[in-house]
Amino acid sequence: MLGNLIQQTVNALTIGSIYALIALGYTMVYGVLRMINFAHGEMFMLGAYVAFLILSMLVGDVGMAGAIALTVAFVVAVFLVGLIGVGIERVAYKPLRNSTRLAPMLSSLGVSLSLVTGMQILAGPQPVAFPSFFPVVRYEVLGGTITSMQIGILVAAFVLMFGLHFLVNRSRIGIIVRAVSESRPTAQLLGINVNGAISMVFFVGPLLGAAGGILYASYYGIMSPTMGAVIGLKAFTAAILGGIGSIPGAMLGAFILAFVEVGGTALLPVITHGVLGTEYRDVLTFAILILVLLVRPAGILGEAVSEESIVYKREF
Amino acid sequence: MRKFIATLLLGASLFAGPAMAEQITIGLSAPLSGPQAYFGTTWHNGFKLYVDKLNADGGVNGVTVAYDQQDDKADPREGTLVAQKFCDNDKVVLGLVNFNSGVAQSTLPIYEDCSLPTMTFGSNPSLTKQGYKLMVRPVANDLAGALLPAEYALGKLGAKTALVVNDKQVFGQGISEIFAKNFQDGGGKVIDTISVAPSDVDFAAVLAQIKPKKPDVIYLGAVMPQLALFAKQMHEQGITATLIVPDGGYTPDLIKQAGEPNVQGTLVAIQVPPMDASPEIAEFAKLYKAKYGEDAGPYSIYGYVQGQILEQVLKTTKGLTREDINTALHAVKVKTAVGELEFDETGELKVAPSYLYKVEGSKFQLVGSK
Amino acid sequence: MTLVFNKLRKEYGQVVAIDDVTASFAPGLIHGVIGPNGAGKSTLINMTAGSYTVSAGSIMLDGKRLDKLKKYQIANSGVARTYQNIRLFDQMTALENLEVCFYPSDVGGTWKEVVWPPYASARRDRRREKCMEILRLFDLQGHADAEAGSLPYGRQRMLEIARALVCNPRLLLLDEPAAGLNHHETADLTAKLAAQRSPDRITIIVEHDMDLVMALCDNIIVMHHGKLLFQGTPAEVQASTDVQLAYLGTANDIDDIRAAAQDRRAQLGIRTRRRS
Amino acid sequence: MSVAESLAAVRPRSSRAVAFLVFAVAIALIAATPFLPNYYIRVIDSLLIYILLGIGLNIVIGYTGLLDLGFVAFYAVGAYSYALLASPQLDLHLPFLLILVVAACLGAITGILLGIPVLRLRGDYLAIVTLGFGEIVRIIINNVDWLTGGPKGIARLDKASILGIQIARPVDFFWLLLVVVLLAGLVAWRLERSILGKAWAAIREDQDAARGIGINTTNAKLAAFATSATIGSIAGAIFAASQRFVSPESFTLQESVLIVLMIVIGGIGNILGIVAGAAILILLPEVLREFAEWRILFLGLLMIFLIIVRPAGIVPRSFGPDKLIRRLFGK
């Protein structure tokens, strides 16, 4: 029983940290532009594919040693995807910045569709095997099985999240980004380079998403052009659950979501005496999301706003 | 818009014009885009390979064969549009249709309404039980597909207990229910049935539930890439039960994506004989690779076999109308690459070959056939 | 026949925004509420209109408790208001902005409007006639079909007041109606508001523009740090040393600057987000 | 943005010509449809179903300004109403018209059930909760096998008939759908112009100010959800009758998103826009059928292009049916 508990906790932490990396991208973009970036899941997918491409070039053509090649591929891929993110913002979202709120959201849907089908055409629609970034060693801890891969993912995710935390709260760039997300007009009046800050967000968000994608692909051993869709939706759910726009909220939401999913799988059949099986796990997830939002309409750590303190004009 | 009008006019002219007597068209419908595109494309390629050869030899009794290949996206709505397109085209006298039983469910009534005979590929047993007069299924249904593995598990592996996992999709759920029934009928015990979501990639939580139950075999009714993911995670979590999977796993991707050490001993049941089973199949594999630049897909050989059935139909048919073709199709008896085939009155194969493979190293080793 | 605040109190956590205010407002008069920024003037309006909850005490209109009602119910009891930052329905025409105020009385006939076109057009004509009348009073008849959001700032202010007046409210709450208006516009507004005096209506104006307040109001209450500091006629207020002290002595500089910035942004039409 | 400006500048004189053109093309299409091959009629049927769905969803999104990503749930409710009441599944074989009424009522009830929890939520929170609702409905349908057949779906649905006239061929459904779409469009358009429609617009523009003028936003929003769901559910029932097979895979999140896209690309809040949006998103992939995956890529890029060039949609909100009629018959 204890073994099972430890096992499930580790499982939840691993999934949760991948969700968190992606949820952060949603929440940062939302914080600055009040926009849901539906193409964010595709950054996750791109991360895996770009890393795979670089890796096969490094190992195949250059003949670089495994561990170094992996590190190089990881770093180069996340930076490349970050740049792609900035480029997409310039082309597809920037022209819509003063438009309705729905317009950039739908533009991002178009970007998402194009990236997925583009990748299907380029790399084929089939899932492709992805090499492991960490050697798989199993450790038995009090009856539970933990793999070195899970540990590696946890460490990598936490390093990245602390890096982001530092960037947002301690660095100059972070202050600028926070100022812009607080109030874009005011930041503009203060002479802040708003475009620069937005580009920064569209660099860091996809970068983290791509990192999540690489970790995910190497954890599960496969990648596919559509891999971003489901996990993107889950990360988005996590961001909303935690209170979209809030960075700690995104992380909290991601781990809560992961624990609900794992807990649902493990406990639903037990609690309901087999009436509801694990197939109802997503129902449970969404039901909990709805309940949380009923109590806290702006998510767990979202800014609670009273009616008059915020001028809500039309959403779109 | 201009293109649309052009297509419109073209469609109208086809509709009105007289059909050419010496060429028939076969409608091909399967997923050609999206995650299942690989199966649809490679299946059709096998057929095209045979038909091209047939045409190169001057056709059958002077009749040449053209094909109209359409994407149904594995979506019932798209499937019905394609079905209607074939129905409207008088030159189409036979359909090689729908890889997915779910799509076939919605298209078969349309084909029935316009008297277009089909060779349906969907393997759900219920398709032939609805009284359709114009369909045959040139491939073993899931009843046969799940019998062999159950017998093997009970007999050769000496398994007493099985745990069944399905992905809550038509195919996965259907075939795993049939496996469970066969396993129980043979004296085994199914200790639990678990459903997972079709989009799941992480089975760690499910596996942690399975582990203490210690089943002898686990039957996983799902498709790729879930099969590979499950096998990999199962091994990583230290579960030693024998994994049995249905036909979707008969692809080198299973071994590649799961990682070679993680799938050793996994059993795969499929209606396809090994590529070196006979000189004819080996020859086909070579031809396929030469023509399409890649290895034949899991169902390519069935496309080829359907070409062989078509040839026999054309040899025996009285005329080239849909009705004539249908009569000939139901009466066909032909030696094909997978053995001699004929259909019963519901359109089901009288003898449906099925095979069981075991993963050894990076190869699928035949361990049983029926 | 009056509006009564009875020991009205509003707290935000530790901060007391309104501190036991008791006051009554008689119909037929225009009441001004003045005071430095942060004195709680707008809070009074927001509580009366139901936008803020009441921490303690009560608000009575004609013997009916308002503070337990929902916001739309308060509006339906004959309370209409304008906002510090103009809140029009931007993509609706000026006429529609007024027309929609007939929702509470006309909504019951919606299905009849849908299935029976003559009924619908009769209803609509009746509504439009009343709305055009009000628009004319505010010189907006020429802009009836213009989108509200596209009107110049001054016109938007007028339109918002027209919207508040269209259903002939018992209680009219104007939250800084002259904010952002230039001198001419303010004078124009003063004249129009004066023309809207009605013996059945209680009008309360929160305003910084002293010219407007002094010219228009019959009765003024002065708020300071959430407390009612003084109540009297314009002349009495001008003579009061307490009031002078409150304005000159303790006015919080930061608040004034913030208010100026707020007004400036409102003028520019920038949507502002403020933390609660 | 010069392209956008030039596109947006619809000159009054030419717009009368445009109106006549639109009208003439519509009439010509309707008149020509029954003579087309069945495939084209089926495509047009499919288009009409999506227009119907668009009209329904537009009430919530376009009129009331609530981003509903779970609309497909109502579509599913309607489809399964028909599937369960007119098939061997429960061995009930009720008449089509009766089922339409039942589906409409069930749709309205589900609409209100969804409406209640989301009333307090705004914007993106509303979007995710409605999305979750749609998924919940789909997952439940996929899992209550004893009732809905689970993933297998329900096959062999009865052929529909109205007052003894069988509705089975694509052309029958064309006429049925045409009538239903025109009716739904008319109702939606008249609702928009009614006092309730004005209240919806007020809620869309500024919900708090709408409360401030005495609008009971709860009731108005529930009315929007219920009407929208009713139309969606009717569309579902007709879809099931025409397909004669239902399975959960027809009711995925992608369908909801497709309908939202249709509305926004066409011109949000405008029935004419929905027709334009549906034409692009439903017909284009059909026309480009032979290009397989490239057509989807093209569609994605076209979407970005259209939204950037015309963020408010192809047909402006102001060019609604009233304007079309005025241009046609007015002075």
Q: How would you summarize the topology of this molecule?
A:
The complex is a heterotetramer of chains A (316), B (370), C (276) and D (331).
Chain A: H1 2-33, H2 40-62, H3 66-93, H4 102-123, E1 128-129, E2 138-141, E3 144-147, H5 148-170, H6 172-182, H7 184-189, H8 194-220, E4 222-223, H9 227-242, H10 247-271, H11 281-295
Antiparallel strand pairs in A: 1-4, 2-3
Chain B: H1 2-16, E1 23-30, H2 37-56, E2 64-71, H3 76-88, E3 92-97, H4 101-113, E4 118-120, E5 135-136, H5 142-145, H6 147-155, E6 161-166, H7 170-185, E7 189-195, H8 204-210, E8 217-221, H9 226-236, E9 242-245, H10 252-258, H11 260-263, E10 267-270, H12 279-292, H13 300-316, H14 322-331, E11 333-336, E12 339-342, E13 355-360, E14 363-369
Parallel strand pairs in B: 1-2, 1-3, 3-4, 4-5, 6-7, 6-8, 8-9, 9-10
Antiparallel strand pairs in B: 10-13, 11-12, 13-14
Helix pairs in contact in B: 2-13, 3-4, 6-7, 9-10
Chain C: E1 3-12, E2 15-25, E3 30-34, H1 41-49, E4 56-61, E5 64-65, H2 71-76, E6 79-81, H3 94-99, H4 103-106, H5 110-115, H6 117-137, H7 153-165, E7 171-175, H8 183-195, E8 202-206, H9 210-216, E9 219-224, E10 227-232, H10 234-239, H11 241-248, H12 253-268
Parallel strand pairs in C: 3-8, 3-9, 6-7, 7-8
Antiparallel strand pairs in C: 1-2, 1-4, 4-5, 9-10
